[in-house]
Amino acid sequence: MSAAELLAFDREHLWHPYTSMTDPAPTRLVTGAAGSRICLDGVGEVVDGMASWWSAIHGYRHPVLDEAVRGQLDRVAHVMFGGLTHEPAVELARRLIDLAPEGLDRVFLADSGSVSVEVAMKMALQYQRGAGRPGRNRFLTVRGGYHGDTFDCMSVCDPDGGMHAMWSGVLPEQVFGERPPGLGGDVAAWAAGFRALAAEHADRLAGLIVEPLLQGAGGMHPYPAECLVVFREVADEHGLVLVFDEIATGFGRTGTLFAAEAAGVVPDVLCVGKALTGGYLSLAAALCTAEVARGLSAGDSGVLMHGPTFMGNPLACAVASASLELLSTGGWAADVRRINTGLQALHGIDALDVRVLGAVGVVQLDHPVDVVEATEAGLAEGVWLRPFRDLIYTMPPYVCSDEDVAAICAGIAAAADAG
Ligand SMILES: *Cc1c(COP(=O)(O)O)cnc(C)c1O
């Protein structure tokens, strides 16, 4: 099929994320990718400012990651995980336990970020049942969050962003605290309100789930690390299972390997995904403490009630281990610092707000972005961006050069102008 035929078929038959099938937004045809660049039909090579939704941290066609997939393909691509195990899964779990905050040493391998959040929520609910508190079946969270698109995940997403009004009667009703203040904001005032809310609802609450340090798809909102201490204290005070969803922040994005480290806080359950496989395959994990694992097993069923068909997929585990091996050399930290320095140029853009944290740069406009116009303007500067709401942002691959980062900043400036 020609490029035109591919695009025509796509437009007629394929759903893309959050799009209409009757009035689809334009899509671009990718013909290849390498390093920090993707190739678009009719456009040519552009710098990828999105790292494929924050996952391709080592860039595309990385020789070590390519080889990990090829090598595993010669052994076995997939086998069921029920009653069977394999070296790639064991090796990955070993590495994750090694890298994760101390004590998170029980690993559930899930096939996507949303599923890992579902599993984390199940862990919390089953834990409370095991403790003889089945009435604790709600979750405490904060406004402005994003935890995935399946129903339980949606129930803890921002009520407005997650369109809870549209789903009322369908979604479980959770308890929402105010969004933590931005960097430099008044943590004490926010914390007082959050503690009071937790106390008010404590006897109904199973867990507390948040994205630590940076709310991603809910609004690209970085917040002070002290808030993580508040989350830990509130969870301890009321017997809640503390879940950190690090699907966006994990693996160095905010400047520490895990965002939890910024405050030295250890959650009871940690979700990772997105960059786990370096953006190669869909894989996520929910790690929990031995205490949570023991507690949830004390319930009626005695088992964790989850087991996806593609659990522990060997290809995905092999490439994830290779990605963690690349991270373990530590070069990512200098890359993230370097990118952070380059992204400071965003502060020169005239906008409602500019926020830079780790290898994340966000420009907030005073109006919703015209995504088509902004995308075009970015491409004209040789940069792939995917703005949403009033936000034009970047989470580039760690391998992008200083020139790439400068191009991304120029692309964002042009997109902000056009959009
Ligand atoms: C992307 C994301 C998810 C959902 O992951 P999927 O793999 O898309 O299901 C959940 N939580 C956070 C914080 C995310 O950024």
TrEMBL record:
<protein>
    <recommendedName>
        <fullName>Adenosylmethionine-8-amino-7-oxononanoate aminotransferase</fullName>
        <ecNumber>2.6.1.62</ecNumber>
    </recommendedName>
</protein>
<dbReference type="GO" id="GO:0009102">
    <property type="term" value="P:biotin biosynthetic process"/>
</dbReference>
<feature type="binding site">
    <location>
        <position position="307"/>
    </location>
    <ligand>
        <name>substrate</name>
    </ligand>
</feature>
<keyword id="KW-0032">Aminotransferase</keyword>
<keyword id="KW-0663">Pyridoxal phosphate</keyword>
<dbReference type="GO" id="GO:0005737">
    <property type="term" value="C:cytoplasm"/>
</dbReference>
<dbReference type="InterPro" id="IPR015424">
    <property type="entry name" value="PyrdxlP-dep_Trfase"/>
</dbReference>
<dbReference type="InterPro" id="IPR005815">
    <property type="entry name" value="BioA"/>
</dbReference>
<feature type="binding site">
    <location>
        <begin position="308"/>
        <end position="309"/>
    </location>
    <ligand>
        <name>pyridoxal 5'-phosphate</name>
    </ligand>
</feature>
<dbReference type="InterPro" id="IPR005814">
    <property type="entry name" value="Aminotrans_3"/>
</dbReference>
<feature type="binding site">
    <location>
        <position position="53"/>
    </location>
    <ligand>
        <name>substrate</name>
    </ligand>
</feature>
<dbReference type="InterPro" id="IPR015421">
    <property type="entry name" value="PyrdxlP-dep_Trfase_major"/>
</dbReference>
<feature type="modified residue" description="N6-(pyridoxal phosphate)lysine">
    <location>
        <position position="274"/>
    </location>
</feature>
<keyword id="KW-0963">Cytoplasm</keyword>
<keyword id="KW-0808">Transferase</keyword>
<comment type="subunit">
    <text>Homodimer.</text>
</comment>
<feature type="binding site">
    <location>
        <begin position="113"/>
        <end position="114"/>
    </location>
    <ligand>
        <name>pyridoxal 5'-phosphate</name>
    </ligand>
</feature>
<feature type="binding site">
    <location>
        <position position="274"/>
    </location>
    <ligand>
        <name>substrate</name>
    </ligand>
</feature>
<dbReference type="InterPro" id="IPR049704">
    <property type="entry name" value="Aminotrans_3_PPA_site"/>
</dbReference>
<dbReference type="InterPro" id="IPR015422">
    <property type="entry name" value="PyrdxlP-dep_Trfase_small"/>
</dbReference>
<feature type="site" description="Participates in the substrate recognition with KAPA and in a stacking interaction with the adenine ring of SAM">
    <location>
        <position position="18"/>
    </location>
</feature>
<keyword id="KW-0093">Biotin biosynthesis</keyword>
<dbReference type="GO" id="GO:0030170">
    <property type="term" value="F:pyridoxal phosphate binding"/>
</dbReference>
<comment type="function">
    <text>Catalyzes the transfer of the alpha-amino group from S-adenosyl-L-methionine (SAM) to 7-keto-8-aminopelargonic acid (KAPA) to form 7,8-diaminopelargonic acid (DAPA). It is the only aminotransferase known to utilize SAM as an amino donor.</text>
</comment>
<feature type="binding site">
    <location>
        <position position="245"/>
    </location>
    <ligand>
        <name>pyridoxal 5'-phosphate</name>
    </ligand>
</feature>
<keyword id="KW-0949">S-adenosyl-L-methionine</keyword>
<dbReference type="GO" id="GO:0004015">
    <property type="term" value="F:adenosylmethionine-8-amino-7-oxononanoate transaminase activity"/>
</dbReference>
<feature type="binding site">
    <location>
        <position position="386"/>
    </location>
    <ligand>
        <name>substrate</name>
    </ligand>
</feature>
<feature type="binding site">
    <location>
        <position position="146"/>
    </location>
    <ligand>
        <name>substrate</name>
    </ligand>
</feature>
<comment type="similarity">
    <text>Belongs to the class-III pyridoxal-phosphate-dependent aminotransferase family. BioA subfamily.</text>
</comment>
<comment type="pathway">
    <text>Cofactor biosynthesis; biotin biosynthesis; 7,8-diaminononanoate from 8-amino-7-oxononanoate (SAM route): step 1/1.</text>
</comment>
<dbReference type="Pfam" id="PF00202">
    <property type="entry name" value="Aminotran_3"/>
</dbReference>
